Amino acid sequence: MGRKWNNIKEKKASKDKNTSRIYAKFGKEIYVAAKRGEPDPESNRALKVVLERAKTYNVPRAIIDRALEKAKGGSEENYDELRYEGFGPNGSMLIVDALTNNVNRTAAEVRAAFNKNGGNMGVTGSVSYMFDHTAVFGMEGKSVDEVFELLLENDIDVRDIVEEEDGSVFVYADPENFHTVQETLKNAGITEFTVAELTMLAQNEITLPEDAAAQFEKLIDVLEDLEDVQQVYHNVDFGEGE
Predict the structure, then answer these.
(1) How far apart are CA 196 and CA 57, in angstroms?
(2) What is the pLDDT of residues 95-128, one digit of tens each?
(3) In CATH, what number is assigned to the domain containing residue 46?
């Protein structure tokens, strides 16, 4: 799982030159998390998760502060959290998470993206049962054995610990243990994470033939370009060449 996550993150970082779009999505997510709780990450766990993710994407402090100030200022702008599930070519599966102030617009745009790029929308639950809600941490400077012993000493159960060829280590844990794992790693001197996410990981991955893979990649690109879409999860392994 670590290799897949690492490849997707690198692929997005190298391909997506429109960093302003990424920052805008984070700004919206930070605002929503802050508005639905306290605008203080120490008392608002959802906000703390978003801010940790923002760090791994190098979101400027000005973007973060602007979103927090907007929430503190009592803005009446409201967003609905939506999840769409669907299918791409050759048995591929996708989950699309969105934040929107216009449900009809978002539904129409997501449906059009599927229909025009070899996919089709599914009903709620048609895909998500094949994914696991997972906390993922990526880090450098520690070995698998060191991380395992550290978590064991603190009686923290995790799903898996994987070391990649480049020496980076990925920890997979239950979502409810996100903060416990994170604080334990931080207390051990790990101050920066290459990945700190609550995500949806496919239980089984598939590899697509070249033509279907190109079509599927186009579908992902179109979905991620939509203003209201925050995250796209899928079950396709693009391989180490991507």
Answers:
(1) 10
(2) 999 999 999 999 999 999 999 999 999 999 999 9
(3) 1.10.10.200
Rounded Cα distance, 45 and 64, in Å: 16
Of the candidates 71, 74, 95, the one whose C-alpha atom is nearest the C-alpha of residue 85 is 95
- C-alpha pair distances (Å), 117 with each of 18, 113, 121: 22, 6, 11
User: Would you tell me the crossing angle of helices 45-56 and 61-72 to the nearest 10 degrees?
Assistant: 160
Q: How far apart are alpha carbons 128 and 173 in whole angstroms?
A: 18
- Residue 119's domain comprises 80-128+205-234
DSSP state letters, 111-145:
HHHHHTTT-EEE-TTTTGGGEEEEEEEEESS--HH
For residue 139, give both structure tokens.
């880090």
Q: What is the pTM of this model?
A: 0.87
